[in-house]
Amino acid sequence: MATVAKTEGIKAFSATHDWESADYEPTLPVSEMSNPLTRNIDRAPASSIVKMLQACDAQMFQEKSGAAYERLLSDQVAKSLMEVAKRVQLILKNPQDSLIVLSGCGTSGRLAFFITSGFNRELRRLNHSAVCSYIIAGGDRALFSSQEATEDDPISGALSLKKVSEGKKRVLFIGISCGLSAPFVAGQLDFCLQHPDVYTPVLVGFNPTHQARNEPIPGCTFTFHSVVTKMRELAKMQKAFLINPVLGPEAISGSSRMKGGSATKILLEVVFSAAHAANFSRTPITYNGILQHMRSYGKVLDITYSQTEGIAALMEAAGRSLQCGRGLCYLSWGFLGLLGLIDASECKPTFGADYKDIQGFVGGGCKELGSKEGDLNLMGAESGIAHIDFLHNVLPCLTDKDTVLLLYSHSDDVDEVAKLARRVREKTSNMHAVYHQTDGDTAAQQGEINKLCSSTLNFIWPQATPASMGLQHMWELSTKLVLNAVSTGAHILKGKVYQNYMIDLQVTNSKLYCRATCLLQRLSGHPKSLCEEALLKAIYQVDKLTEDIMTCNLTTHTHTARKVKKVVPLALVCLLTGYSIKEAQSHLEQKPIVREAVEACLREQTLFSGSL
Ligand code: F1P
C-alpha cells in the first residue's frame, strides 16, 4: 500500500497547474514552489533551457489585473518604492548622523554589498559623503564563498546592525530576505522595531506577507512572520515599509539567487536612482518615473534573451567542462566581475558544487571591490580572486576541457582584456566572451579578442538610455542573467537537477534543512518524520540514529552536514530502496550523475509497486 501511495504522489505532483491557483502546492510559499514552466528542464537541450529561463524571468514583469498577489509593476509596490526613495533622499540631503543600511544573507547579502558599493561610489564621485553601508551574514568572507550557517542567527544580525549604526541618529534599514525567512534579518528588523526613534525598517522579499516563515526561532520570542505582522501595522503610518512583490516560482525551485536576486537589484536601484536624481538634479520622485524605470529593466530581459543561441552555446561549453570534471572560469574587470564572483560562489550551496567547478576572478581582486574587511584572501576565502591568482593557480593547468569566459565592456581597459585573452588562448581554445558596448562605440582591440574567442555574446545597447537608468545597471543585470543561465544550465547538463529541483543542495542552515526534508517527502511519498530520519542518517552517516544524535539541535545537524557530500541524494536512495548508508553510497558512486541515480531508484520503485 505504502508503495502505491508513493507513486501516486509522484504522479499527482507532476501534473501541470497554474502556480497562482489556491490548490497549487498549498503548503509552500511562492519562493519555494516548483515552476510548472520548468518541470522538464532536466531533460531539455541547452536552447530549450534558455527559453524556459526566459519565460520564468518574464513572469517578474507580468501585469495581471485582479492577480492574487502584488507584482513588480503593481500600484502598491510603486508607491512603497516612492516613499522609500523619499527617505533615502532625506538622508542624502542631510547626511550628518544618518545612515542607510542594506543587509541580507547569501545572495541577498552579496547584492546588498553590490548595490551599496555602486551607490557610494557614485556619491564619492560627486564629493558627497558615502551614506550607505552593508551587512552580510557571516561577514565579508561570505561575499565570495558560501557561509550559510550565520543566516540562522538573529542575535548576530541585530548586533551587526547595532555596530554598524553606532552613534547614528537616523537609520534607514533595508533588510532583504527573498523568502521572508532568514532569522538573521528577522533579528535586525526586530531590533529596528525596538528602537523606532532611530530606525525605520524596510523589508524587501518576494512572498506575500502571510507566507512569511512562522517557525519558532530558538531563543527568540518572535518569528519572521510576527515581525512582518508588526511591520504591516506600522506601514499604515509609514513608519515601516514592505516591498514584497511576487515573482512566480524560481526556475529551479527555491533558487532565489535567480529571480529573487534580479528583482532585489532592480527594486533597490530604482529607489536609489530616484533619490539620487531628486537630490542632485532636482528631478521629483514620481509614481510614473518609478514605473517607467522598472519597465526599462524589462527591456534588458528582452535584449539579453534575444541572444538565446549564443547563451545556449556558452551553457553547452560550460556543461561539457563540468561533465568531465573540469571547470568554468569567469575572468572579468570592474563591477561586472563582482557578478561573476557572486554567481560562482552560489553554485556550492545550490548544486553541491566544488569551489573549483566555477570560479570568478576580477582585475585587482578585493582591493578593487572595496569590501569592508579588506583582503579576503587573508581571511580564508577559498582561493584568491585577483587575476594574478588566476595566473598563478589556474592558468598553468588549463586545458581545452576547461571553459573560460571573459566578461567585459567597452569602458574597461580593453588592452588588458586582450593581453589576458592572449595568455589564456595559449592554453585553451575553449574561451568565450560576453561584451557590452553602446551603439557606435567600439574598442579597437575587440576584433582581436573576438578572433581569439570561440564565441562572443556581443550586446549592443542603445545610446539613448532612459535618463533614470544608468547603462552600467543594464549591463550588470544582463550579465547576471547570462551567468545565472550558464551556471544553472551547466549544472543541469551535469545532472545536478532532478525535474526542477536542486537535488544535491547543501543542507547548511535551517531553511535548507526544511527544503531538503520537503524534497524528500515529495520524491519518496514518505511522511515527514521518516524523511527527516533518513536525512539525519545521511548527515551522520549511520544506519541507526542514536540518542545522542536525536537530542542534538538543528544547528549541530546543519553544521555536521557541511562535511558530507550528496546528503540529500543519499537520504533519498535509502528511503526508496531501504539500502544501508554504505550501500546507498556505493550505488551513488556507480551512478555519479545524481539525476540518473535518483531516476533509477524511482523506476525500480514504480516497477516494484506495479508487480504488487
Ligand atoms: C538567503 C540565502 C540564499 C541562498 C540559499 C540560502 O535567502 O542565503 O541567498 O541561495 O538559498 O538562503 P533569502 O533570505 O534571501 O531568502
Task: Note down, in words, how this protein is organized.
The structure is a single chain. With 612 residues, the chain is of the alpha/beta class. It is built from 24 helices and 12 strands. The chain has a 5-stranded parallel β-sheet, with helices on both faces. Helix 16 links the parallel strand 9 and strand 10. The radius of gyration is 24 Å and the shape is globular. Bound molecules: 1-O-phosphono-beta-D-fructopyranose. 1-O-phosphono-beta-D-fructopyranose is lined by residues 104-108, 148, 151, 177-179, 181-182, 256-257, 346, 349, 511-512. 1-O-phosphono-beta-D-fructopyranose binds at residues 104-108, 148, 151, 177-179, 181-182, 256-257, 346, 349, 511-512. It holds the Pfam family GKRP_SIS_N. This is SIS domain-containing protein. Residues 88-281, 318-496 form the SIS domain.
For the structure shown, list the relevant keywords.
24 helices, five-stranded parallel beta sheet, binds 1-O-phosphono-beta-D-fructopyranose, single chain, globular, 51% helix, 612 residues
**Number of contiguous helices:** 24
Average of pLDDT? 90
Give the biggest beta sheet.
5 strands, parallel
Strand content: 5-15%
Fraction of residues in H or I helices: 40-55%
Distinct compounds present: 1-O-phosphono-beta-D-fructopyranose
Name the overall outline.
globular
Distance between the termini: 9 Å
Total strands: the figure is 12
- Structural class, from secondary structure content? alpha/beta
Protein name: SIS domain-containing protein
Keywords: Carbohydrate metabolism
Domain SIS: 88-281, 318-496
Pfam families: GKRP-like_C (PF20741), GKRP_SIS_2 (PF22198), GKRP_SIS_N (PF22645)
